[in-house]
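Posting here for the record, re: molybdenum atom.
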Amino acid sequence: MPAIHRPPRWAVAEGAATPELVFANRRAVLAGLGLALAGAGLVPRVVKAQTQGDAAARTTFLYPAQRNRTYTVDRALTPEAVSGSYNNFYEFGSHKQIARAAQALVTHPWDIEVDGLVEKPLTIAFEDLVRRMALEERLYRHRCVEAWSMTVPWTGFPLSALLALARPLSSARFVRFETFNDPGIAGGQKQVWYPWPYVEGVTMEEATNDLAFLVTGAYGKPLAEQFGAPLRLALPWKYGFKSIKSIRRISFTDQQPIGFWEEIAASEYGFWANVNPDVPHPRWSQVEERVLHTGERVPTQLYNGYAEEVAGLYKGLESASLYR
Ligand SMILES: Nc1nc2c(c(=O)[nH]1)N[C@H]1C(S)=C(S)[C@@H](COP(=O)(O)O)O[C@H]1N2
Ligand SMILES: [Mo]
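Prediction output follows.
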């Protein structure tokens, strides 16, 4: 496969790069310290950037991005300390307290492969990709299939912008996403009964809906590891498991992708996974959700409140299986 490895314009010799980048800009230093302090006891970003490789320290200058006011919310933002310490990221463990373990993720260098049914397959360095895109901030609701929810200020760019870059062929019907696979770093991946790497997928129509968002940051900073650094998806009308983290590969295909959770339990986690209070999970109700931080129970909305934006995608497909 032809690979395009384009060093970012600011690239200098490994090791020399980070101190220069960080100390050139006082704001970046302060932001870096803020990040380091954000997760008490976590590896300070500046140190990690020098010793291991960290996309965040290299892209801090891109944040905060301008907020896109089209995407706002009717509820309070979840405090970063809460959403950043209650995460689903099975690569680092099958519980919510994975934030510390996830700091082991090495996000530089981080190449993203774009392949399959595209005019020109390519491999692009994350830092190159993020600099080519116009970043914006959006406030999105997030509803986990486990019936908890949060509200997060994500920064990123529409998935459609990536599609424009990749130029899929007309034969492409789905986009398939794949997370990294590195059991040496992610202890959860030593559990061989899981179908690693984590995979998710959407139809081309869903991918080109403006709500589909590729996330590079949260809370006005580069994405923290536990949120799925350096690049994750946000599909706010679908259950959270569709919003795949730490993406390494994006493939265009004519085959419907089988997601990680669908592979494990197809009767519980299907391809569509659209949020719907009227379709219970086989083992629990989806009528209500528990709001992170406040603990409040609120009614779950069809398409997680995004019906106006996405209901059109599912015209004529309104069968129960659609939402699993
Ligand atoms: N690679 C990967 N992506 C993933 C997951 C995962 O375990 N691995 N969990 C999913 C689930 S179930 C949810 S609810 C969200 C959680 O995102 P958060 O930790 O940022 O809240 O990530 C999704 N993306
Ligand atoms: Mo989830």
